[in-house]
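Researcher: I need the complex structure. Ligand is S-adenosyl-L-homocysteine. Inputs:
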Amino acid sequence: MTPLADLLLRRIRATGPITMADYMADCLLHPEHGYYTTRDPFGAAGDFTTAPEISQMFGELVGLALAQSWLDQGAPSPFSLAELGPGRGTLMADLLRATKGVAGFHAAARLHLIEASPVLRTCQAQALNGFPCTWLTDADHLPDQPLFAVANEFFDALPIRQFTRDPAGWRETLIGETGGTLTPGLSAVAPLAALSHRVCDTKPGDIVEICSSAAPIVEALGQRIAAHGGAALIIDYGNWGSKGDTFQALQSHVFTDPFAAPGLADLTAHVDFRALATASPTAHAFTDQGTFLTRLGIAARSARLAAQLTGDARENHLAATHRLTAPAEMGSLFKVLALYPANAPPPPGLN
Ligand code: SAH
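Model: Output:
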């Protein structure tokens, strides 16, 4: 049993079953035993890999899209360049390298990284190689100024609650104990105002997930973008709307039982992009990752890099391009939601 499982079981015995959101929050960010607080989980030796870790092209193209959007809006200075959940800092390092040639962009940028994990903050500082940066724990603390932001695989890590539709209301998934192990079960039926808008598009037995911490974060980004200009690119796996059980655990690149080893596996859920878009006072645009990267010119960038490579390095690079864009790989499952001011064009790649 992991130390966190022991701690959670004791808590459940004392005060009763806990919500999936409480479970997820402790598994990921418990100060002593949390998954992200204690490790760097990325790469072949870790538990999962992400688009910026697959290829430098991802951060380069995201960076150039944000820089073009900054130019389209009159190159405001100063502005916040922000990333939520920057992981190893790879995306930001690639973004900064790719935008070096955009006149005035670096001089105007005030870099803010929103990161909860002390271990990953250290990795990010190394990746940034001296570029001045402020770390924040919360998007609410971003300054009131134009904001150009990116979040890749951040929102999937935020805790969700899960509800099963019943003819008379909803039953919430709660984590309790059976025979000394953590076991999910369903609460008694209750009506739920927060899900009243889902009664007409669900039937008894359907599962709906809500992520209550996501909306305030998107609102904090959207308010700054609506008031001062800017854009946010939110990239993740998920759909327009939430339906079905998408709660999952990954350990060493294999899906595992999310309740088997709390604190040792990455826990995520698919992102409900409709809920994010609804929370922002800005205009929004939505597409899939494959379309987004293709419109931004990944084919040309990939061919350019391939021309400098031979053998395995060339094969790996071409495989990475395919992985990021092909519909059967990350191209369709991953989506891009852009937030931007109603009086500005959407960031490149979105239309
Ligand atoms: N964007 C990176 C990493 C994705 S993993 C990449 O694409 O490789 C999720 C990241 O979000 C990690 O850096 C994790 O520590 C951070 N994170 C998760 N929950 C968070 C929270 N509530 N507040 C701030 N950062 C969080």
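Model: Summary of the prediction. The CA atoms of residues 80 and 143 lie 7 Å apart.
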